Amino acid sequence: MRSATASVGSAPRRRVDASNNRVLLLDAAEQVFLTDGTSAPLDLIATRAGVGRATLFRNFPDRPTLMRALVDRALDRLQARERALRDDPNAFLELLRYCAERIALSAPLVEYCRRMDQRETSYRAAVARYVKIFSGPMRRCVKAGLCRPDLQPADVLLLSSLLNARAIHLAHKRRKLAARSWELMLAAAGIEDTHGV
């Protein structure tokens, strides 16, 4: 009876530990890929996260699985930001600003996404989700006359490509590059930004 109680009580604990380990691994992967690139040895991620190699591969059996999880997490964060801005008439601009700031800190992930096979289901799903997140804010922006009236949801991919096109890995250039990309993207969309990046 005692062992049965222990095993029942330990299951939720294992689930919490597994969830925590996954977050630790994703955080570590972002840090490692930022400093060493997306081809860095995966063992470095396990070491940075403070978990064993087996835990890493139990969560992410290979590099593409890990990269897709990072993309999903980036989209989760973008969606959370969109929800927080739901009542803001400038939500479209603020989401673009958020992306510009994230690109400056996530150049390796951006580069990985650019190299993904566009025929892959995971790639198409990520792109569709990205466009959908921007769709409502863009429509409200157009309706309020705050941007070009001919903007369409798919145009966010073109605007994002202006922000992504020159993403580089040299830390001292990231902020300057992000600011310049931001200016060019705003000009293309016909948006006036009075606050700056």
Brief overview:
This is TetR/AcrR family transcriptional regulator. This protein is mostly helical and about 200 residues long. The chain is built from 9 helices and no strands.
Can you put this structure into words, describing what you see?
By secondary structure, this protein is mainly α. The chain folds into 2 domains: 1-61; 64-192. 75% of the residues lie in helices and 0% in strands. It contains 9 helices and no strands. Helix 1 packs across helix 2 (42-49), helix 5 crosses helix 7 (121-143) and helix 5 packs antiparallel against helix 9. It starts with a helix and ends in an 8-residue tail after the last helix.
How are the SSEs placed, and which strands pair?
Blueprint: H1 2-36, H2 42-49, H3 53-59, H4 63-84, H5 91-105, H6 107-115, H7 121-143, H8 155-164, H9 171-189
Keywords: DNA-binding
Domain HTH tetR-type: 19-78
DNA-binding region: 41-60
